[in-house]
Design brief:
Strand order of the largest sheet: 7-6-5-8-9-10-11-17-18-19
Mean pLDDT: 92
Oligomer: single chain
Helix content: 25-40%
Order of helices and strands: HHEEHEEHEHEHEEHEEEHEHEEEEHEEE
Structural class: alpha+beta
Number of helices: 10
Largest sheet: 10 strands, mixed
Length: 388
């Protein structure tokens, strides 16, 4: 396991330069843990046309494999919930369902966790096991508990951790439930996105403990939340930056299917949009939209003539907003019990009036009845999400 030592040192240098790696203890972990062990049996590399090229650890040239393993990219390790690189002989199509996240994201998150030597850490989403190994190296294998929902992914991660010399606590199960057997924890870190922070995580965290997770459900427009658990069982903190992870499988939204024209057949109102809906293709406006209209999805489509269409749907509340453009002007049709665009537009306008603050201005507070998000000194930028 020494043949990639130069690559590990070079990776640590790049992470330091990027500002993701700031402490000697975590640098030692990056230099010690061979990332290539956690990519077995192989990876899928993106190619033209939305297809993937499988590269296996056994079949690849050692120099190419080392270059791939220590690249600054996320590496897809599973497609469609089952397919691995050793099962594909040629180019394939599919949706990524497990990956080794880019090292700058992994290490940056671990640094943000503020873990100390004696801390017990719960990791939600083992994935390849690479981040688990980094934490085992720094904190000790008995202080790390990691939960993975996919049995095959969990088995590969467990094998890789054993090969790397870490017999840690690997659990196969729904990470949204945490792992009460080993609670309470000093730190909880999730390598998946959640619509809201589960209260089970708060109950399993010691007072003063920290939870770090990506919140939101849109692929781009999610925030990294860092909250501290209080003595009274509440938690409070803020969004510390942008973050993009695969959705927790139990919360993944199924893609909308069927006839979109039928979904939008009956509108209750039609008017000019006050702000362009294409703002939702930007990160902070997309995050605000999810706060203003939880459960809503942004959908892009096209007519048979190639005309681009833009929609917002909330299937659970049977509501929609449909947008059409005429140059720079946009018209919105809305239907259903909830006027989705009214709520989102109000948030976007208030955000602009407040000077368009960054996502790091968003604070949040959680109790057993609701999640509250707000931006200081902006009464219109405050949202209460009540738990069902």
């Amino acid at each position: 396991m020494t043949e990639t030592a130069p690559e590990r040192r070079a990776l640590a240098d790049r992470l330091e330069k990027a500002g993701a790696l700031t402490t000697p203890q975590w640098r030692a972990a990056v230099e010690a843990v061979p990332r290539e062990l956690f990519l077995n049996p192989g990876v899928f590399l993106p190619t033209d046309g939305g297809r993937w090229r499988p590269v296996t650890a056994v079949g690849a040239d050692p120099a190419e494999w080392a270059e791939i393993a220590y690249s600054d990219h996320s590496l897809t390790t599973q497609l469609d919930g089952h397919l691995t690189a050793d099962q594909a002989a040629d180019l394939v199509t599919g949706v990524p369902t497990s990956s080794s996240t880019t090292p700058v994201t992994v290490v940056g998150m671990i640094e943000s966790l503020d873990a100390e030597d004696s801390h017990q850490v719960l990791e939600i989403g083992t994935g390849t096991g690479y981040s688990s190994a980094l934490m085992c190296h720094r904190l000790g294998e008995d202080n790390v508990t990691t939960v993975e929902v996919d049995p095959e992914v969990a088995a590969r991660a467990d094998a890789a951790l054993e090969t790397a010399g870490f017999s840690t606590w690997t659990v196969t199960g729904d990470g949204l439930l945490g792992h009460p057997r080993r609670a309470p924890y000093d730190r909880v870190i999730a390598t998946c996105a959640v619509r809201r922070i589960p209260h089970t995580w708060i109950r399993q965290t010691k007072p003063g403990g920290i939870i770090l997770t990506t919140v939101g459900s849109w692929p781009y427009g999610t925030g990294l939340a860092k909250v501290t658990v209080r003595e009274d069982g509440t938690a409070e903190g803020r969004i510390i930056g942008r973050s993009s992870f695969m959705q927790a499988r139990a919360q993944a939204l199924p893609p909308l299917a069927g006839d979109l024209s039928a979904r939008t057949a009956y509108a209750d109102s039609e008017r000019a949009a006050k702000v362009p809906p294409v703002m939702l293709e930007e990160w902070m406006p997309a995050f605000l939209a999810q706060l203003a209209a939880p459960g809503a999805q942004l959908v892009r489509a096209a007519t048979s003539e190639g005309l681009a269409l833009l929609y917002i749907f909330d299937p659970d509340r049977e509501s929609f907003a449909e947008f059409t453009s005429d140059g720079d002007a946009w018209t919105v049709r809305q239907g259903g019990p909830v006027s989705l665009w009214d709520d989102i537009e109000l948030a976007l306008t208030a955000w602009q009036d407040a000077g368009s603050p960054d996502i790091t201005a968003v604070q949040l507070q959680i109790n057993n009845k609701s999640h509250t998000y707000w931006i200081e000194d902006s009464p219109a930028l405050r949202w209460h999400h009540h738990l069902a």
